[in-house]
Amino acid sequence: xxxQKVVLKFSAALVEQPIIYRLIKNYDLMVNIIKAEINPRRExxxxxxxxxxxxxxxxxxSFLEGLGVVVEPLSQTxxxxxxxxxxxxxxxxxxxxxxxxxxxxxxxxxxxNEKCLVCGLCVSYCPLKAMDVKWGD
Amino acid sequence: xxxxxxxxEINEKIKKGQAVVVTAEEVIGLxxxxxxxxxxxxxxxxxxGTFGPMCSSGVFLNFGHPKPRIRMKKVWxxxxxxxxxxxxxxxxxxxxxxxDNDPENKHGPGRFLYGGGHVIEDLVARRPVRLEATAYPTNxxxxxxxxxxxxxxxxxxxxxxxxxxxxxxxxxAVNRSNKTIYTYLGMLKPNLGNAxxxxxxxxxxxxxxxxxxxxxIGTRIFLGGGVGYVAWHGTQHSPCxxxxxxxxxxxxxxxxxxxxxxxxxxxxxxxxxxxxGYGVSLTVGLGIPIPILDEEMLRYTAVRDEEIFAPLIDxxxxxxxxxxxxxxxxxxxxxxxxxxxxxxxxxxTNPMSSYPAARKIAQILxxxxxxxxxxxxxxxxxxxxxDSGIKLNSLVERNGVNGK
Lengths: 137, 404
Ligand code: SF4
Ligand code: SF4
Description:
By secondary structure, chain A is an alpha+beta fold.
């Protein structure tokens, strides 16, 4: 099984097509859409988790690239500066998936990297600037 | 049988390394096990702590005189203005001051990445800070301008003086409108999407001495990782509001003005703070030891989150418009459970002040006292309490002077 978070970027023409449906149906891949955006010029970007058998995964990616979709691995991660974080808990209100959460009754703030969508909301919100985006794998 | 303990007796025990010290969290369990009377006889001191954004904070600085001398009419530190309308080369840098060119909330909720609180943190962290000052020349102070770099150790004085810290209880903020708002209590999601609170509850200093029987002028405290003192009651000190049966105020009440030498504080406990859509602040670590003079003091310090209530306030309309009233009271135990009920709706809660850091401060203070490094002080004068008749006035708008 391959399991990777990828970013797809595609043009206006492709927005109308059922790409994801074909990806699932023809390549037997599991798709978990994390974030989808279509900008005013009708260009789309999709962040999703893609998993399946390695050969299916490769064929699926080739299929997308054949259509002119740019496929990039999601290589940003969000990290917490453990020295700077005071465990105030303010960020737990902005994290959309509970990757930052309160442990009770200790009231310490947990950070679950696996769940993190790299949406960046906590990075700009954290009052002590303890969260940061890291580039690369 | 009632008993009494004096400051002198406590300090004798501290000096001998024999004082029994517990935190305001630990004392709760002890009282549950053994009862107030027994624990009061055993425990000499209970330590408290809090670590949250405290906007009314700042530092008095004396930079020393350059050659030739300058009066310093306007002063900036890393581009953040400090108030220089006092004697030559003195200035007061406030925690919420922004750089002159900060975009504020002009393009949506501002990020407020740098300001007075951050300069204070930079100073304490021993990072060099850019100083710029301008002045009009006088015969004794001929110079018009200076630009240089300072560090905390080189300047003569850096006196942290926070006019309003350690709020005794506070509002819980909610948003009844249908759009997200940004406040000093953080982001509030629409339609009661979250409830934000900022108090260490059972660990918070003034909630453990609700009538200020022991915390008064001259009380030695943990401030910003070093030693500080209570200088006065804080601004907006309001001890006469409604209290519960246990004496704990049911909303924001007492405050403290505190003072201490910045040079012996630590950056870990004084942090520049950015509040999205609101501004900058300073997160201050503050802890106060409470002497167990009698059973009554022990009973106060054994207060639990279940017994401390805060008002739910709507920050979309009621608070900004200055309307009285609230949406009910909630206990800190409910707040810390992660969700509360408001008008039949389950609302998730989030803190703004760090409970784990408050716990750590109470622990550090406890160790200082156990090691005999930190003696207790009897207040020189007590703070105005529930019998003081203090009323908080609103600002009245009038046209002209004397209503003319
Ligand atoms: S808001 Fe920042 S400092 Fe507070 S718990 Fe979250 S990451 Fe830590
Ligand atoms: S980047 Fe987004 S998903 Fe990840 S922890 Fe921060 S708020 Fe949560």
